């Protein structure tokens, strides 16, 4: 069960090698979390992540999970919940893709959409049902500021995150009053391996800063978290700019 501050004792990470997810796990282990499940494709990186978290004092398990195989989600994730209550699920998997390449290769674009949206819908619904059955818990979903408005530079990725963001908001409404807390996290540019090849955007942040914001959001039972917080104002302005003006912006 969660403590008086809303922090979890048990954590299930979907996307077990995500730098943001691992930064969040480290922060929560330092506070309260004692059991962590890392779900992801079997790999040395997943094993190394598990060993690292064990070194911080947590009991860590790995479970094979593939976002692109929705048919397996109910069975795979069901086994985790069968082991005991999960206080928090962090849905952190996703792929950035390559906009220029993906525009020329529809199958590559579809893979981005299937990973970021279809896979997340499947896993999100499975976890939401399990959390509702146990009567408590938080589902935290990593969205992106890219979900707020389509940009020429990354509209394939942005559209998949827009779908995920809308889905998560609706799921939160559906679960309101059930004891399950749903929180959307909208980071801006985060300095990770995934973004290392890209020019850094204004208001860039770090996995550790996102983890800090997630902890604060859990304590406050927030429904939406922006990282950094200033992006909320920035995106409100950009979202309402006339399309002709927005097209001319270097974004």
Automatic annotation (TrEMBL):
Which InterPro entries does the record match to this protein?
A: NAD(P)-bd_dom_sf, Sc_DH/Rdtase_CS, SDR_fam
Write down the superkingdom of origin: Bacteria
Return the PROSITE patterns for the record.
ADH_SHORT
Q: Does the keyword Membrane apply?
A: no
Alphabetically sorted, this entry's keywords are: Oxidoreductase
Pfam families per the UniProt record, alphabetical: adh_short (PF00106)
**NCBIfam families from the UniProt entry:** PRK07904.1
Entry similarity comment: Belongs to the short-chain dehydrogenases/reductases (SDR) family.
Name of this protein: Decaprenylphospho-beta-D-erythro-pentofuranosid-2 -ulose 2-reductase
- What's the source species' lineage? Bacteria, Bacillati, Actinomycetota, Actinomycetes, Kitasatosporales
